[in-house]
C-alpha cells in the first residue's frame, strides 16, 4: 500500500479533490454534545441520589454497573437492528429510550425501580452509540475518517466538560432536577438526529441503485486492523474507568492527602489538553497513518499511567494526566478509524463488537483494579493498566502500514444531491 506524503498542515499541499466532512458528521458532533452535557450533569449527582434511597455503596455500584452491563449485553443485537432498520432510526430510538428512562429515574419511588430504569438506559445507550459510530464511519471517506471521529469525540469532550458544572447548579434545586435536564437534552439530540441526519441508502460504486453486498463478518474479524482496534478499546475501557477514573480520585485523597476538589481540577485541565490535541491528532491519523498513531499513543499512555501513582504532588500528577489526555486524543481516533478501514460495508455488527470490548473493559477493569489496590498496592493496579496499553502497542505492529486506499468519488456521503453519495 503506497503511503501518501505531504507537509503536515500545509494548505497548499491539500489536494483540490480531497473529501470534506459531510453534513452527517457535523450533525453527529452536535448530537454528541447534547448527549454528553446531559450525562455530565447526572454523573456527579447519581451516587448521592441513589444513597437517598437508604442503600449502601454496593447498591450504588450496582446502579453504575447495571448501565454498563446492559450496554454490553445489548450491543450484539444493536448491530443486527442497524442492518435491518438503518442507523438513523436506531440512533433516534436509542436516544428516546435513554431520555424516557432518565426522566423516570427522577420519579423513581424505590431502589429496584431505579436499578431497572438505569439498566434500560444502558440498552438505549448501546443503540445510540453503535448506530452513531456506524453512521459516522460510513459517512466519512477513508482519508478523513480520523478527522470525522475527532470532531465527533470533540462534541462528547466539550459536553462532558460543561455538564458537571451545570449539574452542580441543578443539584442545588433538587437531586432529581439533573435527571429531567438530561431527559431534555436527549430529546433535543433525538429530534436533531431525526430531522437533520440523512436517510441511509447503500448503493454500489459502479451501479445506480444496486445494493452493496455486506462484507462477511469473518473477514473483518481476521483483519489485524480490526483486532488491534478491539484490543485498544478494551484497554481504554479498562484503564479509563478502572484505573484513571476509579483510582486517581482515591490516590489524591489518600496518598497526596489533598481535598477531593483537586481531582476535579486535575481532570478538567487534562480534558482541556485532550480537546486541544484532538485536531492535530485527527490529522495525524489521516495523513501519517493509523498504525504509528496507535503504536506511539498507547506506548506513551503505558508509561504515563504506570508512573502516575509515584507522582509526589498534585502538580506533577496533573502534568501526567495532561500527557495521558494528549495520548487519549490519538487513542480515541486511530482505533475507530481502523474499524472503518477494516469493516467497510460490513454493516453495524463490527462496530457493535468494537463497542463491546470497551464496555467489557469498563465492567471488569474497576473490579480488578480495586482488588489490586486493596490487596497488593496502588502501583500494581496502575501497572496492569500500563501493561494492557503496552500489549496494544505491540500488537499494532502487525497492522499494515500506510494509508487506506481512496474510494471512487461517489462513495462518501457528502451530499443529498448526489444519489451515489452513499
From TrEMBL:
Any one of the GO CC terms: plasma membrane
Give one Pfam family.
MFS_1
Q: Which InterPro entries match?
A: MFS (IPR011701), MFS_dom (IPR020846), MFS_trans_sf (IPR036259), MFS_Vesicular_Transporter (IPR050930), Tet-R_TetA/multi-R_MdtG-like (IPR001958)
The record's section on SUPFAM superfamilies has: MFS general substrate transporter
Q: Which GO terms describe its molecular function?
A: transmembrane transporter activity
Look up and give the membrane topology term.
Answer: Multi-pass membrane protein
What residue ranges carry the coiled-coil annotation? none
Compartment(s) = Cell membrane
Q: Which residue numbers delimit the Major facilitator superfamily (MFS) profile domain?
A: 24-404
PROSITE patterns, per database record: MFS
Major localisation? membrane
- Which segments cross the bilayer? 21-46, 58-78, 90-109, 115-137, 149-173, 179-197, 261-281, 293-311, 317-339, 351-372, 378-396
Keyword list, A-Z: Membrane, Transmembrane, Transmembrane helix, Transport
Q: What is the official name of this protein in its record?
A: MFS transporter
What is the protein's species of origin? Cryobacterium arcticum
Task: State the organism's lineage.
Answer: Bacteria, Bacillati, Actinomycetota, Actinomycetes, Micrococcales
Amino acid at each position: 500500500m503506497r503511503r501518501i506524503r505531504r507537509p503536515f498542515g500545509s494548505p497548499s499541499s491539500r489536494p483540490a479533490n480531497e473529501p470534506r466532512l459531510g453534513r452527517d458528521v457535523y450533525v453527529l458532533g452536535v448530537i454528541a454534545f447534547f448527549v454528553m452535557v446531559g450525562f455530565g450533569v447526572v454523573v456527579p449527582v447519581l451516587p448521592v441520589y441513589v444513597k437517598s434511597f437508604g442503600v449502601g455503596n454496593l447498591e450504588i455500584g450496582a446502579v453504575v454497573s447495571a448501565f454498563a452491563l446492559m450496554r454490553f449485553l445489548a450491543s450484539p443485537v444493536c448491530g443486527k437492528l442497524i442492518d435491518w432498520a438503518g442507523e438513523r432510526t436506531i440512533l433516534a430510538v436509542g436516544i428516546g429510550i435513554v431520555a424516557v428512562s432518565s426522566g423516570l429515574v427522577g420519579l423513581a419511588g424505590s431502589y429496584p425501580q431505579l436499578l431497572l430504569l438505569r439498566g434500560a438506559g444502558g440498552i438505549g445507550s448501546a443503540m445510540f452509540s453503535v448506530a452513531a459510530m456506524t453512521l459516522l464511519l460510513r459517512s466519512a471517506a477513508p482519508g478523513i475518517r480520523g478527522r470525522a471521529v475527532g470532531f465527533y469525540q470533540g462534541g462528547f469532550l466539550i459536553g462532558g466538560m460543561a455538564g458537571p458544572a451545570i449539574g452542580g447548579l441543578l443539584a442545588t434545586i433538587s437531586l432529581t432536577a439533573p435527571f429531567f435536564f438530561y431527559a431534555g437534552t436527549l430529546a433535543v439530540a433525538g429530534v436533531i438526529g431525526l430531522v437533520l441526519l440523512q436517510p441511509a441508502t447503500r448503493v454500489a460504486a459502479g451501479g445506480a441503485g444496486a445494493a452493496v453486498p455486506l462484507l462477511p463478518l469473518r473477514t473483518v474479524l481476521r483483519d489485524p486492523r480490526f483486532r488491534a482496534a478491539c484490543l485498544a478499546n478494551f484497554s481504554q475501557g479498562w484503564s479509563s474507568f478502572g484505573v484513571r477514573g476509579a483510582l486517581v480520585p482515591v490516590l489524591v485523597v489518600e496518598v497526596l492527602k489533598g481535598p477531593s476538589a483537586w481531582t476535579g481540577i486535575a481532570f478538567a485541565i487534562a480534558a482541556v489538553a485532550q480537546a486541544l490535541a484532538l485536531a492535530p491528532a485527527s490529522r495525524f491519523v489521516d495523513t501519517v497513518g493509523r498504525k504509528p498513531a496507535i503504536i506511539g499513543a498507547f506506548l506513551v499512555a503505558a508509561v504515563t499511567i504506570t508512573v502516575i501513582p509515584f507522582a509526589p504532588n498534585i502538580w506533577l500528577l496533573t502534568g501526567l494526566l495532561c500527557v495521558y489526555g494528549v495520548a487519549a486524543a490519538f487513542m480515541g481516533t486511530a482505533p475507530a478509524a481502523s474499524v472503518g478501514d477494516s469493516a467497510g460495508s460490513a454493516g453495524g455488527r463490527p462496530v457493535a463488537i468494537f463497542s463491546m470490548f470497551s464496555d467489557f473493559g469498563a465492567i471488569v477493569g474497576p473490579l480488578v483494579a480495586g482488588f489490586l489496590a486493596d490487596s497488593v498496592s496502588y502501583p500494581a493496579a496502575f501497572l496492569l493498566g500500563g501493561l494492557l496499553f503496552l500489549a496494544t502497542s505491540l500488537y499494532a505492529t502487525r497492522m499494515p502500514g500506510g494509508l487506506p486506499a481512496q474510494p471512487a468519488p461517489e462513495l462518501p456521503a457528502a451530499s443529498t444531491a448526489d444519489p451515489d453519495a452513499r
